[in-house]
Amino acid sequence: MNVLIVEDEPNYSDTLEMFIDELGYQVIGVAQEGKTALNLFKTSKPDIVLMDINLNGEMTGIDVAKEFQSIQHTPIIFITSFDDKETFDRAKATGPYGYLIKPFEPDTLERSMELALQRAHSDDVKAFEQSQSGVLAKNAFFVKERNRLVKVEINEILWVEVEDKYINLFTENRKYTLRQSLKDLAEKLDPTKFVQTHRSYIVNASKIQDIDLHLFVIRINETEIPLGKSYKDELVQRLQML
Q1: Domain spanning 2-128, CATH architecture
Q2: Which helix (DSSP H) or strand (DSSP E) does residue 127 occupy?
Q3: What is the pTM (predicted TM-score) of this model?
Q4: Which of these, 108, 65, 104, lies nearest to 83 by C-alpha position?
Q5: In angstroms, rounded to a whole number, what is the distance separating the alpha carbons of residues 113 and 116?
Q6: For the chain, which terminal residue's Cβ has fewer other Cβ atoms within 10 angstroms, N or C?
Q7: Has domain 140-238 been given CATH number 2.40.50.1020?
């Protein structure tokens, strides 16, 4: 995750950089005033912005946030020493994803950033769901990665597996992670090509190398995938065997 910091106090911006680094994220720029912040925002296209309200120069952090949102909708978390209602109401009008009062702990920042990104992703999903247009690419998925939609050809999917609250799509060269149920994804896959082999796995039958009916495993791309006993008979029945 790429993070832009807009903060005019060097000591505090250094602290934020340290926090971000410890969380495993990438700081792609630090600005102390509005014009520099705008240039960095346009060139770096951050996934999230940490914005101080009281900045050097003519523009406040609230002014900068308005400019950012007019260019590209991006999650912004305000960070400020002001805890009065008037400042909060002005900041709230820009639609921020968080509002933190200095000082705060790294855990508080981490939770705020995760919630902001989750909400941003949820907003994107709702926008797609509300669309009345038809499907543009019936033979592919578009997987969201940061601010990009990456095309994944359905025929290139080797198998799908459940991992906690996520599902992973495996191709020969990459793994894509989605926050979706296996059942919902299965409804989008061609049932003549894809078959469920385990409560946590769906495989592309055309990519199967071999099936061990004794050990109950399927091998695809030199990877062993479990074959549930309750799924074995249906799989065997659907295969063309000699």
Answers
A1: 3-Layer(aba) Sandwich (3.40)
A2: helix 106-130
A3: 0.54
A4: 104
A5: 5
A6: C
A7: yes
Q: What residue ranges do the domains of the chain occupy?
A: 2-128, 140-238
- Which residue in this structure is represented by tokens 């009345």? 132
Say whether 140-238 and 2-128 share the same fold.
no
Number of neighbours of residue 165 by Cβ within 10 angstroms: 8
How much is the average pLDDT of 173-197? 86
Instruction: Give the sign of the dihedral formed by CA 185, CA 191, CA 192, CA 197.
Output: positive
Paired with 211 in beta bridges are: 218
pLDDT of residue 135: 47
Alpha carbon dihedral 235, 237, 241, 242, in 10-degree steps, equals 150
Supply the DSSP string of the chain, one letter for each residue: -EEEEE-S-HHHHHHHHHHHHHTT-EEEEEESBHHHHHHHHHHH--SEEEEESS-BSS--HHHHHHHHHHH----EEEEES---HHHHHHHHTT--SEEEESS--HHHHHHHHHHHHHHHHHHHHHHHHH--SPPS-TTEEEEEETTEEEEEEGGG--EEEEETTEEEEE-SS-EEEE-S-HHHHHTTS-TTTEEEEETTEEEEGGG--EEETTTTEEEETTEEEE--HHHHHHHHHHS---
Q: Which pLDDT value is given to residue 146? A: 65
The tens digit of pLDDT for each residue in 19-58 reads: 888 888 889 999 999 999 999 999 988 989 999 999 988 9
Q: Which residue has the tokens 């600005």?
A: 31
